[in-house]
Amino acid sequence: MRITLATLASATAQQVFDQVRDHMLRQGKQSKLRPTGPICAYRSHDGLMCAAGCLIGDDEYISDMEEKAWWQLSFRGIVPDAHPNLIRSLQGIHDRFKPEFWERELRDLAQEHDLAWTITLASLPTASAQEVFEHVAKHLLKQNERCQVDTNCAYRGKAGACAAGSLMSDAEAEGLTKFNVGYGWLSLLDRRLVPRAHAELVVGLQRIHDSWWPHEWRAGLQRLAASNGLDAAFLAAL
To answer: pTM for this structure?
Structure first.
């Protein structure tokens, strides 16, 4: 679900954080009202969006929003009074810190609000190999079923998501719908559709999903962890 002003009140704090974090990490630039000015913009002239701006649908945006803080828009009834502290904090990171410090500040904010640091295509380059391994391993052992469309493995399917597919947010997977079946991770890499970070590890995890039976996944994950110098102790509790 893509969050807009129309759906913000029904979204969880985790969903709000994930959407804004992914937007900021993907964009990697501050959205400014004027390129050399100090004032951030919900929508900039060059198509950028600030942290709070990515929660506003294109059909919901009006230029009168600019140069007004989120709380002012909320007070005037222009935006919902939902998750105000979280949105204000996310906006503060966008406005006060240079993009190279965003990941650090976002991770701190997630801890402060007791939110998970989920891994998506946007956050994959900032994740450690251990984080990627744990994320996919927990997904596979919980799902315990191959994700297929007909007899072919798929990034998204009735069972949920394959190994590599678990690294995509729903919005990211939707954008890659035509590549859902028949395109391996390396094929997506060649098309520059996914980040190159941890490519070998992701391919190894995908191979376990595709080539091993679900009851063999735990053993496959332990073997992959050992060959990559990763900690697999957490698997015992799953």
So the answer is: 0.83
